[in-house]
Request: fold
Amino acid sequence: MKQNGKLRRWLGLNLFSLICAGSVGVTEAQTTNFIVAQFDTDTAGTFIDQRWGTAVPRVTWDNTQNAATTLVSNNSNSGSAKWVVPWTTVQDQIMVTHALGATLNLNQFASVSFDIHFDSSSATDGAGHFGAVEIDWVPAADGWPSTPNAPQAFVDFASGNTNWIHATMPINAASISKLSAVIGMGFKIQQTRTGANLTGTTTFWIDNIILTGLVTTPIVGPPQIVQLNSAQYWQRLEFQITNVPAASNPFDPDVIRLDATFTLPSGSTIAVPAFWYQGYTRSLSGGNEYDAATSPPQWRLRFTPPQTGAYSVSLTIQTNHQPYGGPVVTNFVVPVTSPPARYGYVSVAPNHRYFQTGDGRGLPLIGENVAWPTGRGTYDYDAWFASMQTAHENFARIWMWPTSFGIEDAQPTLNNYSLAPAWQLDYVLQLAEQKGIYVQLTLDYHGMFAVTPDTFGGNNYWPVNPYNITNGGPCLNQNAFFTNSTAMTIYQKRLRYLVGRYGYSQNLLDWELFNEIDNDYAFLNSAAVAAWHGVMGAWLHTNDPFGHLVTTSLTYASNHPELWSLPQLNFVSEHLYNAASPATRLKTDVQTFIQTYGKPVMVGEYGTTYLGWDTAGDPYLRGFRQGIWGGALSGAVGTAMSWWWQNIDSRNDYSVYSALGTVLNRTGWGSGSWTNITFQNSQSLNAIGQRGPRESLLYLVASDATFPTNATTASLPMQQGRTVTLTQWPIGSYYAEWYDPATGSPAGYSLSITTNNILILPVPDFTVDLAGIVYPPPTFTTTPEDESGTFKFQFNSETGGQYRIEKSTDLSSWTPFLAITNTTGMLLLDDPSAATNSRSFFRAEHNR
Reply:
């Protein structure tokens, strides 16, 4: 019975009553109530003591006290919130706040009410008063109670009345702009509100906190699909859905469900869910972001047209699993234009080692974690993404968790999501699109299941996790999150919301289900966790119409085959900290995962230490650089993704990424088939590398510079006369271009010839590390002439090679013919003059 009561509470708390569920064409404005809390179960712990005074209030759930109400349905004998306030100093005051679970416009409500009764032994002011209660509101713009409900801000309670009292306060929000977007309410009790100090302890109970008089927008006519921006090829298209019936919970598809089917010009279809949305405007004050709602919540629909031509959209609406009217249909046309420079959703490339976009172009990743902002919120990402773009970065890892972007991380957000952080994630994702940055979205983190803080402190959110049964959720313990069918159904509803809201984006690289969930394996069953990943991964692959990749992450190089062997997880993600010789360690880890699971590997987090940005232990960024380059040339999908993003930004240490991008982005890194290079006795050089279709990439580290060896030594000896030996090498001549990994500037150039399948490359003098590009000389290949007699030939070289091509008719006199950058490694050239020439010769010279 207790279990059923908690489940009932989870389904009914903080919800609008369902209205307008009848036929299309309702024209009358209707009123209903918003339930803040009825305390049918133990949810009193969601109150937060703001510590405005010295008294420390204790708020608990008391199932022996309950107030009946006629405003909404009421569960008899279900309980209330008990407050005990021990006054300690004169003129003291307390403030305790409670989240509304939604962003509300108070202009839509007439009053707020609650039921209260005092214990007869409660402190009085000596003048016949138990004291007074003031209601303050928590605007989304401030995040703390700053706007009292003026002019009637408090209610005075006479000490002779110990029965339940129904208190009602009018809401006068019209003159206070902040009250158009409110996320919580506060109860304030002051000793001196009625003139004298309260002495002793005040004890009272509160129940049935309800906002009354909500006026819903009248529905006039059938639902409509309103196009909000022009339709463009491979660009986001957004619609508003109007005249939709009001629902008790617009986030729950069992209550109300809007599904759109897009019919493409080719005749194929794509089904996309609509989502509940509220717009905000942001401002920056005192180093903090404040967001204010700009419109009432509404239904939205997002889509990215993958074809040009005429489309149709058919929208169906269900309320409580019943059709609401017939399909709503609209049409739009995407004009014929050239596609963007890069387009399409990211997938695993045919070689099962790298990623590619929908246009077939390889997508090697250069980037870092930017998991959460400071108090500047989205303004931090304005600065970070601008710097990252300048430094050739194209990847960012972002967390959804309680401090930022978390829409379902605290009671009462279970299947009743917070709209302000959802809008902030909108902003950041759209900014990433503008900056060419691909986002890994981490949907949950391990701390949501911990009870006590870990080494870092603060990772103990299970007591406030909305899935916790004590908060009205369905889970008796942490492991139940991964096994309870109700919990899994609720989570899939969240996935549906994320797909509808963010799935349109080509720059959404993947859904990462968890950050380091193995941190919780002391109290979780790893087999249950793996099974859950299989279920949720399968759900996403079935229901995400855009086909985003799916993965999760584990600590260090944790080899959990029950997870990584799941076909529902598209790639492996390892985290690496505290590694000696990070470049060679990364190569070993990555190659082991590739060979074991046949999947791409991402180094999702990297740091020379997990304790912080180690400027004392790595003052010259050698360990940092070896991790970034080691990840890139280990065979992983990109660089190792550094964790300490705020330090990188504050120290302006983006140059490591900039140098790597300068060298590698001119090559074919990440495109086609690449294999791991094997080395032989390299004269005390630590070497890793990848061999590609047209060139090979090397990264060398001097033995006395391998982190942490000599990491704090300012000046290291010069490595002179060194060579590096590559084994199992094709016969032929090979050029080697060398670069300084710290700056990206050229460091040397050489030519070598394979002997017995071994290539020995002389290495220019260096001190710490060196990057190299190795490739054979360019070649010309003739192709058949066309009907006009034009001579055509193919020029093959290393990817990105810059050449001057000259022409001669006698092999003696040469004239310039063409200057090229061979961006793809293969160019088809033609010479129209060949029709009038008896013969022509061509040669190519490297343009360095």
Remarks:
- The chain has ten helices and 47 strands.
- Confidence is low (pLDDT under 50) at residues 1-30.
- The domain at 224-334 is CATH 2.60.40.10 (Immunoglobulin-like).
